Amino acid sequence: MQKESIMGTTPIPRLIIKMSIPLIISLLVNNLYNLVDSIFVSRVSEDALTGISIAAPLQMLMIALGCGLAVGLNAMVSKAMGEKQPEEVKKTTSAAIVMAFGAYLINVIVCLLLVKPYFAWQAGGNEVIARYGISYIRICMLFSFGQMLQWVFDRLLIATGKSNLFLATLGTASLVNVILDPILIFGYFGFPAMGTAGAAAATVTGQLAGGLLGIYLNIKRNKEIPVHFTLHIQKKYVANILKVGIPTAIVQGIMSVMGIFINTILYQFSSTAVAIYGILMKVQNLAQIGVQGMNNGLIPIIAYNYGAGKEKRIHETIRCAFLYAVIIMTVVLISLELIPDKILMLFDASEQMIRLGIPAVRIMSVSFFVSSVGIIFAAIFQGFGNGNYSMYLAFMRQVILLIPILLIGAAIGNITVIWSGFVVAEALSIPFGMWLYGKVTQNMIAPMAETYGENRVETA
């Protein structure tokens, strides 16, 4: 079986690179088009950029649904393939497809009920900012079915080691978005100038193109996982996906709630501070693509080898992952420290934005470096089907440790304390992550030697 040769026998250092490079490239393309979105919108006005920055937590809620479903599907399918249970693979896939439609309906309901009240609260009474944000997020949420399809069918390609095909689907989505962005935002070739609504329309069109291509590639090129749609799904498979997926969704949900909380605090300083935070989130996504791509590649590697009982390969995977993460993020950190002003100028930054933004970029770049440790820990926990640990770690980083520092910064009126709080929270959460990893080692990795025997042959 091809999957065995990829996940079970390929040397680990090469396997991580093989799995991660296409994912990194695809994330690079994806984040570049998100960055381009913001750059084009910043040319409309700073209010427009602030509007989509305020909309970001609602986008995170959509990501929470899709990412939770995708991670749960990825872990369960990879584990079933490692255990040589094709029927489990088929039924898990069918359940995930139905769940994707359910996630889309949740997006629609949230959009209809909450978008207007949310912007009335977060925009601080600024109707121009609210109008820009509402016109953007409504389209993203009401037409998010393409995004949900992408989450499911892309993860099926990743689970079988076909990361190059995943690159094709995400690359298609990104290309369509980048082409349509200036046309729909500024009104070229006879199209009306739609502003932020045009950016949203370009995004959902690209997502639909990527989702449809994902369906096609899975049917034609991913024979290890039969795509079978049926409404008669078993609760067992829904529960298995949710077991891993819900903690992941909660982690993303925490990010959404914290985004709202942070925007509220920053608005006390200025709307420019909110726009800077929106830029920083785009920069973070771009800065961490190497580690995030490796994260996505690690989950099926760990899940497969856990299902196959290959303890040594799991240990080597984890060691290599941390080494690669340190190398990648050191290069990123140095780069960001050298060019903060040039990053801000991409967004047509005003003098005030440059003055406030340069120290913010420099401080937050340290946070990006430190947080890479938590990203690798999360991949390890999810690969073992233990999404709860990822949730606990995220809650420690983003709530218990971060909120008190943000409140102190707001109370004393010092925005530097707020940016520094991200670094402190990430650093203080590392010992907690190490403790959770120790529990995984004790309860899941160590017993494998007894279950599968010490004398089995493993290919490193």
Describe this structure in words.
With 460 residues, the chain is mostly helical. The chain has one domain. The chain has 18 helices and no strands. The two termini are 18 Å apart. The model has no long low-confidence stretch (mean pLDDT 85). The chain crosses the membrane at residues 49-73, 94-115, 135-153, 165-191, 197-217, 237-254, 320-339, 359-380, 392-412, 418-438. This is Probable multidrug resistance protein NorM. InterPro entries: MATE_fam (IPR002528), MATE_MdtK (IPR050222), MdtK-like (IPR048279).
Low-confidence runs (pLDDT<50, min 5 residues)?
A: none
Cα-atom radius of gyration: 22 Å
Largest sheet: none
Total number of strands: 0
Query: Can you write the helix and strand succession as a string?
Result: HHHHHHHHHHHHHHHHHH
Helix-residue proportion: over 70%
- How many structural domains in the coordinates? 1
Structural class by helix and strand composition: mainly alpha
Determine the number of helices (DSSP H or I, runs of at least 4 residues). 18
Taking all residues together, what is the mean pLDDT?
85
> Span between N and C termini?
18 Å
Oligomer: single chain
Taken from the alpha-carbon principal axes, the silhouette is: globular
Q: How much of the residues is beta strand, in percent?
A: under 5%
Keywords: Antiport, Cell membrane, Ion transport, Membrane, Transmembrane, Transmembrane helix, Transport
Protein name: Probable multidrug resistance protein NorM
Pfam family, one: MatE
InterPro entries: MATE_fam (IPR002528), MATE_MdtK (IPR050222), MdtK-like (IPR048279)
